[in-house]
Design a protein that fits this description.
heterodimer, A: mainly beta, Rossmann fold, Neuraminidase, 2 domains, 3 helices, 29 strands, globular, B: 60s Ribosomal Protein L30, Chain: A, OMP_bac (chain B), cell cycle (chain B), cell outer membrane (chain B), OMPA-like_CS (chain B)
């Protein structure tokens, strides 16, 4: 439990530290990702210069990130005319515009005297003939993939105007073994599926992991004590602890936006479930719902002032919003079917959910007042949406009929660009981390 | 003789006996829950035994979709369980609540818990002491039937009464 999780990971960014020209108010190259249909931007990502091949590895991770986003169309290297030998010098822009590259990425990777990795890159606007970004990063050698993701985030941000999401991780439940006796282990990986690692040994069923928005910490549910209960796991130390000392099953945990509270369901003796919040420092617990119903899957708004949750208080599972103190619960889902697993978008404007209707499971989004419902994906069995930190991509899991087990998928908020996420075994219950520090 | 009549009332045990006979020694260790405790041959077992409870009395009841209502057919089984438990008072029990796969994970944990509580409350109303009964929900984590249609889902929506020890 340590290595790549170390908080001491050092990245020094010298933004525009060696920019060649001041930027005009508005560069030519830009992607408007709020348009209905986005034409992927043709971009040339050259092999980063290095003595040992590490440059090629880093630039190929950058290229894969940008391609998977669906917003960029990296150009085949065979079409390149100019061979970049000095990434610090201005390229011959017409060599790139003639192959329709609207943006160009160049870079080099070297080793510092004290044995660390140094990566520099420049992003060029080929039609305007100028540099948009020039940055350099330092890290220990084993963190080279993170350097690549950070550069991809920087390019994404500069060209779309939105925050990136490539330097992030996914915690999920790895599933193996027969369907009537599944082995479930907590697992963690980079958002592109690299660096997969197990966090629990599979002896107990574990479910529904969620990242802290502020620390290297997750909360999840485990059967390890014999009673299903909510736990915290420190990713850097591997230290685990029970959340609270409740008499019955606790489940459906999620952090508050400041990471100081865990909100979850507690089973009552009569078989109903209510929502509680626990302050992790004071250990004080607050009861937020009292209905004689199932109240579960709570999720805070990003400003912490409201909570969206699932309840069957009206007869069947629907989505409700209440104040963070439990005040004024209002039903917001009114479509045909049942609704559950609401998750508030990190931008605050939308709620993602699972809807069951007509024998299918759907992943969708609606505004926080319930209006503007849009279904992104329908299928035999799929559930559990989680948001990328920029609020533009949703991950969930899907199990087609007869498939034997679930797999992770991501999809754009537009409902386009569905991508399967590679995992070692079957995977479920994904949770997206915030951008890494 | 009595045991054969009892088996005929219990389709689950018939199915399991048939599976044992057909499958021979293959993979039976993966059968979950107390069904694994079934003895070979399917006899009702001696009075007061775990086997008698599972096979002759019936250790599980089934529910309708998204419901924790104790159905009429389940009331008969739970009443027999209560009679048996009131006779063999050294047993404590765990009532496991389960859901099918046609619901989302957290909701189904709550639904399984509600089913276990409903079965427990029925047993308590029939005289079984509440302090002998523990409940646990497995949500949709432990299906017994694993196909992708209603024939399996209806078997997975269940509450199973597991004997925890005593004079078996």
């Amino acid at each position: 439990m340590q290595s790549f999780l170390k908080a001491t990971f050092m990245i020094a960014a010298m933004a525009a530290g060696f920019a060649m020209a001041t930027l005009p108010a508005r560069a030519l190259v830009e992607i408007d990702i709020n348009k209905g249909v986005v034409e992927p931007l043709p971009i040339a990502i050259t092999e980063f210069i290095s003595a040992d091949g590490k440059g090629a590895e880093i630039s190929s991770v950058i290229e894969a990130d940008l391609r998977r986003s669906g917003l960029f169309a990296p150009i085949e290297k065979g079409a390149f005319i100019e061979k970049i030998s000095n990434p610090d010098a201005a390229p011959r822009f017409q060599d790139w515009t003639v192959i329709n590259a609207q943006a160009l990425v160049t870079g080099k990777v070297s080793e510092t005297p004290d044995g660390r990795l140094r990566a520099e890159y420049r992003l060029w606007d080929t039609y305007a003939g100028q540099q948009l970004v020039g940055e350099q990063f330092f890290s220990s050698k084993d963190k080279w993939r993170r350097i690549a993701h950070i550069i991809a985030d920087s390019i994404y941000q500069r060209l779309t105007g939105e925050g990136g999401y490539f330097d992030t991780r996914i915690v999920y439940v790895d599933e193996s073994g027969p369907r009537n006796n599944r082995v479930k282990r907590l697992a963690i990986m980079d958002q592109d599926g690299a660096n997969q690692r197990f966090l629990t040994d599979g002896r107990s069923i574990v479910l529904t992991p969620r990242f802290s928005p502020t620390r290297q910490e997750i909360t999840y549910m485990s059967y390890e004590s014999g009673q299903p209960q909510v736990y915290l796991l420190q990713l850097e130390t591997g230290q685990r602890e029970l959340v609270g000392n409740f008499p019955g099953m606790t489940f459906a945990p999620r952090f508050s936006p400041n990471g100081q509270k865990v909100i979850m369901s507690l089973l009552r003796d009569d078989g109903n479930s209510n929502i509680f919040a626990m302050d992790l420092r004071s250990r004080n617990t607050t009861r937020l719902t009292t209905s004689n119903a199932i109240d579960t899957s709570p999720s805070y708004s990003p400003d912490g002032s409201q909570i969206v949750f699932t309840s069957d208080r009206g007869g069947r599972a629907q989505i409700y919003v209440m104040g963070a103190d439990g005040s004024n619960p209002q039903r917001i889902s009114f479509g045909d079917g049942t609704y559950s697993t609401p998750v508030w978008s990190p931008r605050g404007d939308l709620v993602a959910f699972t809807k069951q209707t007509g024998g299918e499971f759907q992943i969708g989004v609606m505004r926080t007042d319930g209006s503007g419902e849009r279904i992104l994906s329908s299928g035999f069995l799929q559930e559990g949406p989680t948001w990328a930190p920029n609020g533009r991509v949703i991950m969930f899991f899907r199990q087609p009929a007869g498939s034997g087990g679930p797999q992770l998928y991501s999809i754009d908020l537009t409902g386009r660009n569905e991508q399967k996420i590679p995992t070692a075994n079957f995977g479920s219950d994904p949770a997206w981390s915030p951008l890494l520090e | 003789m009595r045991s054969i009549a009892a088996i005929a009332r219990n389709p689950v045990s018939i199915a399991l006996v048939a599976a044992l006979a057909l499958a021979g020694c293959a993979n039976q260790k993966t059968v979950p829950n107390s069904a694994a405790d079934l003895g070979l041959g399917g006899a009702g077992g001696p009075p007061g035994s775990q086997q008698e409870f599972t096979v002759s009395i019936g250790d599980r009841i089934f529910f309708d979709t998204d419901s924790s209502l104790i159905r009429a057919d389940a009331q008969g089984i739970l009443s027999r369980q209560a009679q048996w438990l009131n006779k063999y008072t050294s047993y404590t029990i765990t009532v496991e609540g389960h859901a099918d796969e046609r619901g989302t994970r957290e909701y189904n944990l709550a639904l399984g818990a509600r089913r276990a509580a409903a079965a427990r409350d029925f047993l308590v109303a029939r005289g079984v002491a509440g302090n002998r009964i523990r409940t646990i929900s497995y949500g949709k984590e432990r299906p017994v039937a694993t196909c992708d249609d209603i024939s399996c889902w209806s078997q997975n929506r269940r509450a199973v009464t597991v004997l925890n020890g005593g004079n078996s």
